[in-house]
Fold:
Amino acid sequence: MAQVQRMSRLLVKTLRDDPADAETLSHKLLVRAGYVRRNSAGIWSWLPLGKKVLDNVSRVVREEMDAIGAQEVLLPALLPKEPYEASARWEEYGDLLFRLKDRKGGEYLLGPTHEEIFTLVVKDQVSSYKDLPVMLYQIQTKYRDEARPRSGVLRGREFQMKDSYSFDTTDEGLAESYRLHREAYQKIFARLGLDYRIVSAVSGAMGGSASEEFLAPAAAGEDTFVDCPNCDYAANTEAVTFALTPVEGAAHPAAEELDTPDTPTIESLAELLGVPASATLKNLLVKVDGEIVAVGVPGNREVDLGKLGEHLAPAVVELVTAEDFEGRPDLVRGYVGPQGLEKVRYLADPRVAPGTSWITGANKQDTHARNVVCGRDFEVDQYLDVVVVEEGDPCPKCGTGLKLDRAIEIGHIFQLGRKYADTFQLDVLGQNGKPVRVTMGSYGIGVSRAVAALAEQHADEQGLYWPKEIAPADVHVVAAGKALQTELALDVSEKLAAAGVRVLVDERPGVSPGVKFTDAELIGVPQILVAGRRSGEGVVELKDRRTGEREELTVEEAIARLTA
Ligand code: ATP
Ligand code: MG
Structure:
């Protein structure tokens, strides 16, 4: 038997106006509908309705983690400095980490994520390959001193995360633990009712190899990703590739120099010659571990330095400065062309394919060259995807023009490998009696962020409409106001609760029906049952919050419908 929650006793104060500091839809609605309340920047209280939703998300996460054999634990959030010093993250996290001291001057942090501590727990508890694989998880409060805590619970400084960690002796074992998590995440986000995409990610500061992000498309999202409107391709903007397609058979006239005074930029050159920027070849000079290299891209495209850095890592990529041109007469600033650049390694975007013809610098002041053909007049030493992806670029899978969309990162899975096991010498006794180093995965879901992502994706002009499994109640019963209506509303509520339906009933005396309806729409319970005009005949109205469809039914029919 479920409980009937009476609005008259519920700690909820709905607001008609958006909070002044709110920028995103979920922030506005979760505050206005009384789910959360801000305490200070990035720090939030979960009020009764919000706590129910948060718990529902946690329950789904917990059920699916248990289903893959992961075991729930609860580790502290207040952690000693030493393990994070050992992994170097005490430093690497920089300002993101909340650091504090105890009364004896001992240094501590509030955990932003727990790789170190889980590694130590497993080192302490596990000694043989027979004890592995093991997957552990917790649903716990995390702390990160975010630079711009905004968007409500979407980006908190204190927030709820499900973090799990897998421990295996072999790479195949790790791949299997990763696969299990990936599938569990697909089930979780489907059950939560979130629209999401899986994109491959760059693992950044975490280190390690395979890594994917789960993104929920939403205007409030802080991540940009590419989405194919035709096929299932979706990717991080940094991961988009462009196929190298040599152009064959075209007869190009011989290259020739052009007098182009005062045209050190692509814009000035294109204007002088009356050609589109895309007909020109832009050659960006950068330093790779101190060596000057040129990067060629079509003149209308930008080089994505982040992407370039990822390709060339661990080499360090820097921009050139004026001093780098000293003693280099071969490098004419603003007039660089790949033809005759003998001493410089030439990297290029695949759009600069063999057989394509370009207008580019002639390596002489105020001079350019045209009909400069790739493969004839210059060679590319290495092709790399380095341009900033743009809307309409071809999908690498099907060729359709890609869309650029915004999304919220709701989950992230990593194959960490042996990074932390190496730091803490996490070995177990292998089958052959020799120690084996353990390999790890780490997997996160933003539990509190998921509530915001859900709100972003399930809202309209009137307010929220929660998916059933996540909603704070199954049905919101509204007593229009008269004694008879209230009596019927309470009676129906009791009957529904007895059948296991979670009921929120608005029987507030002295509150107008209009206010009650507005609140019901704002709060967003999936079904709204109104005891109104025809209560005397035992007839109620049932409304689907999301579709707005309404139907008059007898009390018995309504109960049958809601308990089906
Ligand atoms: P972001 O890029 O958004 O800062 P992240 O990549 O640093 O996130 P992870 O370390 O991968 O985050 O953490 C796992 C999950 O925790 C994320 O996928 C996200 O859903 C959630 N999360 C991370 N930071 C926050 C935050 N400040 N508030 C709420 N949830 C967060
Ligand atoms: Mg992440």
Summary: The two ends are 15 Å apart (CA to CA). The chain has three domains: 4-10+473-563, 66-224+404-452, 256-383. The longest helix spans residues 171-192. The first strand starts at residue 4 and ends at 6.
